[in-house]
Amino acid sequence: MYVIMVYDVNVKRVNKVLKIGRKYLNWTLRSVLEGLLTEELYENLKEEIMRVINTEEDAVYFYLIDTYNAPHKTIIGATPGEFNFIE
Amino acid sequence: MYVIMVYDVNVKRVNKVLKIGRKYLNWTLRSVLEGLLTEELYENLKEEIMRVINTEEDAVYFYLIDTYNAPHKTIIGATPGEFNFIE
């Protein structure tokens, strides 16, 4: 399935969350990672994230799209060069 | 179709982008809005956004999911109370 992960976490934990996310997904915008994952890898990702966030302060959303193709995406503006596009 | 809009724009333009986005979508996380839109409304949204962003500095992503149902979403951590959930 295709997973879009968006986070809004305390700046103290951004690096940790990002580091875990990037083990599984492509980082495509400041607070967005995305990519194809198996159910099992998605569960691992979620577990790892849960271990580092503060559930009182931080929020992480996972959108799960049941497809083997990425959803259609339109980008307006700058394509952020700092991110590791693997697409 | 279901639209997920994610933005990373200069702080000077955040309010403008958010104000436009909220005319069309629900604001669900700091830099995320989402909801069902017709093709026509989506085009209007995109046009309005293009008028206010600086395409050298800002980036806005639209994920378009061809469905009448929201994709499955898992939220970890705090549900941000400040956002206008209409779900």
Automatic annotation (TrEMBL), chains A, B:
What's the source species' lineage? Answer: Bacteria, Thermotogati, Thermotogota, Thermotogae, Thermotogales
- Record-linked InterPro entries: CRISPR_associated_Cas2 (IPR021127), Virulence_VapD/CRISPR_Cas2 (IPR019199)
The name under which this protein is listed is: CRISPR-associated endoribonuclease Cas2
The biological processes this protein is annotated with in GO are:
defense response to virus; maintenance of CRISPR repeat elements
Q: Does the keyword Metal-binding apply?
A: yes
The Swiss-Prot or TrEMBL record describes its family as follows: Belongs to the CRISPR-associated endoribonuclease Cas2 protein family.
Which top EC class is named for this enzyme in its record?
hydrolase
CDD domains named in the record: Cas2_I_II_III (cd09725)
Q: Which UniProt keywords apply?
A: Antiviral defense, Endonuclease, Hydrolase, Magnesium, Metal-binding, Nuclease
Q: What does this protein do?
A: CRISPR (clustered regularly interspaced short palindromic repeat), is an adaptive immune system that provides protection against mobile genetic elements (viruses, transposable elements and conjugative plasmids). CRISPR clusters contain sequences complementary to antecedent mobile elements and target invading nucleic acids. CRISPR clusters are transcribed and processed into CRISPR RNA (crRNA). Functions as a ssRNA-specific endoribonuclease. Involved in the integration of spacer DNA into the CRISPR cassette.
NCBIfam families, sorted: cas2 (TIGR01573)
Record: residues binding Mg(2+): 8
Q: Mind listing the GO molecular function terms for this protein? A: hydrolase activity; metal ion binding; RNA endonuclease activity
Q: Write down the superkingdom of origin.
A: Bacteria
What is said about its interaction partners and assembly? Homodimer, forms a heterotetramer with a Cas1 homodimer.
Looking up Pfam families in the UniProt record yields: CRISPR_Cas2
Query: Which coenzyme or cofactor does it need?
Result: Mg(2+)
- Write down the EC number: 3.1.-.-
